[in-house]
Structure formats: structure tokens, C-alpha cells
Amino acid sequence: MKVVIASDSYKESLKAIEVCEAIERGFEAIFPKAEYVKIPIGDGGEGTVDSLVDAARGENYITSCNRAA
């Protein structure tokens, strides 16, 4: 059996990937032989950038801009 876990973040609590991992742990207790696919998602709000960076296996960079047009 394959189980797809797609979740958004829990505001100010857990990142989307952390929610997916927690759900996976719960399912594994009942279905230990299943294959799990975790898909962290975002709705455009808090956590969306983290989901995109995680999915692309990228990195966040912080910089400053002095002359924004």
C-alpha cells in the first residue's frame, strides 16, 4: 500500500515537513509495511517558501537591499 501525505504547516508551531513526518509516524504504527510519500505543501502564506526550498533541496539565503525600486 502507498500512502501520500500532503500537509501544510501548522502556523507558528510546525513546518509542513514536520507535520508530514508526524502523520507518517502515526500511520506507521498501524500500517508498518506501507510505503509513504511525504509532500509538504503551502497555500501561499507562512511556510510556503520553506516547502518550496525543501522540495527543491535548496537553501535559504538572507540578504539586504538598500535601493529597492
From TrEMBL:
GO biological process terms held by the UniProt record: organic acid phosphorylation
A Pfam family this chain is assigned to: Gly_kinase
One annotated GO molecular function: glycerate kinase activity
Matches recorded under InterPro entries: Glycerate_kinase, Glycerate_kinase_RE-like, Glycerate_kinase_sf
Gene3D superfamilies reported for this sequence: Glycerate kinase, domain 1
Domain of life, source organism: Bacteria
PANTHER family noted in UniProt: GLYCERATE KINASE (PTHR21599)
Name of the molecule in the record: Glycerate kinase
Organism this protein belongs to: Bacillus anthracis
